[in-house]
Amino acid sequence: MYSFEPTEDQQIVITAAKKLAEKFRTGMREADDAREPAADWPAAGMELCLLPASIPEQYGGFGEPSTITWALASEELAFGDLAAALVVAAPNLTALPILYGGTEEQKTELLAAYCDESYVPGSAALMETGIDFNPYALKTVAVLKDGCYVLNGVKCNVPYAAESEWVLVYAALDGATQGFLVKQGTPGFTVKEREENVGLCAFPMYSVELKDCAIPASQRLGGEQGCDFPFLLNASRVALAAMAVGVARASLEYSIDYAKQRKVFGEALAQRQSLAFKFAEFATDIDAARMLVWQAAWELDNGKDATESAYLAKNFAGDVALSAADRAVQVLGGYGYTRDFPAELWLRNARGFAIMEGIAII
Amino acid sequence: MISFENSQYIKEQQKYTEQVSLEKIRPQARFFDDHEHEEPWDFINFIWNEGRKTLKILAPGEETSEEPFMLQIHINEMISWGDIGFYMCLPYPSLGGAAIASTGTEGQKNRLVERFKGDKPTWTAMALTESHCGSDSSAIRARAVQDGDSWVLNGEKLFVTMARKSLIDSQGFLVVWATTDPSAGHRGIKPFLVEADAPGVTPGVKITKLEDKLGLRSSDTAVVLLEDCRVPLENLLGGADGKGFKGAMKTFDSARPSIAACGCGVARAALEFLKDELAKDGVKIRYGVPRNLLTSIERDIVDMDAQLRAAWLLTVKAAWLVDQDKPNTKESSMAKAKSGEVTSKITQKAVELLGALGYSKKTLLEKWMRDGRIVDIFEGTGEINRLVIARIILGYSGKDLR
Fold this sequence. Notes:
The complex is a heterodimer. By secondary structure, chain A is α+β, with helices and mostly antiparallel strands. Chain A has helices spanning 8-34, 41-48, 67-80, 82-89, 92-101, 104-110, 229-261, 273-301, 307-331, 343-350; strands spanning 124-125, 141-145, 148-159, 166-173, 176-183, 189-194, 205-216, 263-264, 267-268. Chain A folds into three domains: 8-115, Butyryl-Coa Dehydrogenase, subunit A, domain 1; 124-225, Butyryl-CoA Dehydrogenase, subunit A, domain 2 (Beta Barrel); 229-350, Butyryl-CoA Dehydrogenase, subunit A, domain 3 (Up-down Bundle). In chain A, a hairpin with a 2-residue loop joins strand 2 (141-145) and strand 3 (148-159). In chain A, helix 7 (229-261) runs antiparallel to helix 8 (273-301). Chain A is globular and about 80 Å long. Chain B contains 13 helices and seven strands. By secondary structure, chain B is α+β, with helices and mostly antiparallel strands. In chain B, helix 1 packs parallel to helix 3 (68-82) and helix 5 packs across helix 8 (244-280). The radius of gyration of chain B is 21 Å and the shape is globular. Chain B has helices at 8-34, 41-54, 68-82, 84-87, 95-103, 106-115, 163-169, 244-280, 296-323, 329-353, 355-359, 365-372, 382-394, and strands at 124-127, 143-147, 150-161, 173-179, 189-195, 205-210, 221-232. Helices cover 50% and strands 13% of the residues of chain B.
């Protein structure tokens, strides 16, 4: 039977995430200006304690992964601030692919670090420059040579590439995308410049160069068997889609609050149908986007092929986030265009959804 | 626990309905589009005599499922996937029935069930709109005056779906909305049961016109004239205090997702047909590839997929709330507004993408485009639904946001 009622445990997670979102909202402008996460964001992520709760006991955690739970939390966190939500979810970038697709040895060796009390950033290198970037057909290649995988290519928008001990590099192996765990300091692995993007400024991302970077064959994600990359990509798309719902909601709620108090021709701006109807449309699309996200997340949690669902959810939610943020700028008029108000920040952030892949995973 | 797993029972009912659509509806759809005002009796009789044995939800008073409304929207979607005009011919208490179900007294509900226990297909209809008002239903002028032991109804009602079937083809009834006090605005408006004494015999009620329409041509849409139509006092729906205007609005809370589901069925038919035709031509849709790498047609299609899914999931959510007995006015309007828009957009785009074939009457696609256009108009236009949603999310009254 269909049901759209989160469990009690999930309600607790939602409530906790909402509290963090308030904190994120107050720090988001300063962090965006500084192009660094606010100092208290990583600790806030640990407070939520979702990653240890996603890792089974034998690997150091105390639970099972749930894409739905992460989606519920991610929407709330991104409602606070998208960059902050990405910071909170960054340890997942290495940890969850290992949990889902790693060998027993990889899980035993690497997962415990993410169950500690201190924040351990994770990192995944999927994106590449060029308008023809396609996660299913990467230009970065892996070749098996003398018991090692040799990686060559250039990656962009790699979160925490400089700070993470392990970076999960995605590369084409015989034409199919696979994951490779590269330890910081491995010869041929070079973290280049910090990315300067139009949005997501507080979230540290770097460009990375792989030049004859050789890693032991045992560091291929999933070992000889490899990993189910489409599954990981789907989980990543659901993560971004959930965050897009949060950004859209933030934009809409702010627009509504503003339009209700702003007077124009003797009545509130929100009393004009030209605005009120738009709000109704966004509220509708945001509810719909959430349903698309939940459906894709549910499919992932239930062992179904979520390729189409996750793709549609990311497209739809990303579109809604962009247009809701754009509308917020318009509703606020001149104020919307200034950096004294959050609308322009949401617009810059929301533009990223259609472009970004693999910078979050749930 | 969030779940998108449909129940086994609904899946089976859906499967059966799909067969009905393929075998009993699709082959007939073009004929009844070409022959407006003729009625698909083969289909109607099949549903009445056979279909209802399986699709028990169409037979009032039968126990069906613990989530009856969820089941209903799945059947609506699948019948409308066959043909939405045929959905409008289903002999079951749809609109009028919904009004009785939501506002009727126990006695009135029982009378509804009795009418549907006869040998012949039976319908009910709802008469609300008038020539000078549609969306602004608080402005209706039809009068109800108490005279001794009767209410006397006078007025003219437009766009009464299934009026001919309810009063002439069968011994069904209308739910007529009329005002007992024109100075009282919507507070004076009350629903009355107008029952046929026999097929074609309802004193004081005349069907003066059957509309010629853009689409939905297998379904009758009538003008109903009430001239000193007398009904007993107990025919005030909901009893002496007749829940009136609010009752009509509550009716919409379930009627809107019902219609939203129908729209999704039409849109799905068009989208599936489009994809099949493109596949025959070797066009493959690359789901999962970043959109900036897709062709224009691929982008259109993945966008249509997402939009249809959005409309359908909003409908499912609204239906779930009905079955949970939770408030769903906002969600119902969302489902209806989205479905109305999406149905038009998808069917119109599909015609474009198939070029001359899409525009031709050789296939049903152009008909689905004409049929689907109604979804954004009846049961509350897209604009009215936006108004309903906007008032709720803004916390505004009808006075604050007009």
